[in-house]
Amino acid sequence: MKFSSKYSIFIFSVFLILVSFNSNSQVNYSVEALTGKGDLIFVGDENKLQSEVFDAFTKMQKAALKEGVSIQIVSAYRSFERQNKIWNRKYKAYVSEGIPPEKAIEKIVEYSTLPGTSRHHWGTDIDIVDGSKIQPTHVLTTVHYENEGVFSDLKKWMDKNARKFGFYLVYTNKNTRKGFKYEPWHYSYKKIAKPMLKQFRNIDFSSFMNSNNLEGFKFITPQFIKKYTKENILDINTQLK
Questions:
Q1: How far apart are CA 231 and CA 9, in angstroms?
Q2: Measured in whole angstroms, how far is the alpha carbon of residue 122 from the centre of its chain?
Q3: 56-114, pLDDT tens digit by residue?
Q4: What is the set of domains in the chain, with CATH numbers?
Q5: Going by C-beta distance under 8 Å and a sequence separation of 6 or more, which residues neighbour residue 151?
Q6: Whether the Cβ atoms of residue 125 and residue 44 lie closer than 8 Å to each other
Q7: Which of 27, 44, 111, 162 lies at a C-alpha separation of 20 to 30 Å from 175?
Q8: Residue 189: beta bridge partners?
Q9: What residues are paired with 71 via a beta bridge?
Q10: Rounded CA separation 181/173 (Å)
Q11: In degrees, to the nearest 5, what angle opens at C-alpha 47 toward C-alphas 63 and 118?
Q12: What string of H, E and C letters represents the secondary structure of the chain?
């Protein structure tokens, strides 16, 4: 069966429209996916990421290696349960030192999120080090990434190249930024993370905090949650909002 050239062009045009629609249509993420309770598909062994993020990271890793920088992930996807354990461990440690509950919570959210609110729940975010260097005791420490620190070459390479692969620093060192402290090791894959944040903002995440398994639950007031949302969740690199 033969087709006229006009008909062939029409079919091809429809195909392009469908491809464009599918590639640009927004994925609707479930509440479970956005809060680390499941419903996302990941790839990778120890450090899991969404497939597209994994592929982008692999390309970036190979490019950096050619220039002597060995990008290694120390933290990627993190489940709700895992984040809950981190929170409870830190809370108990601070309180055992005699720090009042409210102050303990303030110290936790300098670097750690409330379970259900971590960007690591999405499989889009990574904490990285340079695997070619001798690893210090506490790897994720700002001093290692600045000046002549052990990971300073990694940071310089990321500053120059990360955006080419779709990765952006989340918690910048901008003086006017509030919320979580500067994290020169934490990058996010913008193409997926940005729409996920947009959908996440519609969730009342306080409903995911259970007084039976979250230490300090009764001290997490509506006022605290409002402030935490504005500063810790939303006061990030403007490129990711």
A1: 52
A2: 7
A3: 999 999 999 999 999 999 999 999 999 999 999 999 999 999 999 999 999 999 999 99
A4: 32-240 (3.30.1380.10)
A5: 129, 130, 133, 139, 144, 145, 185
A6: no
A7: 162
A8: 167
A9: 130
A10: 8
A11: 105
A12: CCCCHHHHHHHHHHHHHHHHHHHHCCCCCCHHHHCCCCCCCCECCCCCECHHHHHHHHHHHHHHHCCCCCEEEEECCCCHHHHHHHHHHHHHHHHHCCCCHHHHHHHHCCCCCCCCCCHHHHCCEEEEEECCCCCCCCCCCHHHHCCCCCCHHHHHHHHHHHHHHCEEECCCCCCCCCCCCCCCCEEEEHHHHHHHHHHHCCCCHHHHCCCCCCCCHHHCCHHHHHHHHHHHHCCCCHHHC
Q: Which pair of tokens denotes residue 56?
A: 């982008």
The pair of structure tokens assigned to 222 is 């509506």
pLDDT band at residue 39 under the 50/70/90 scheme: confident
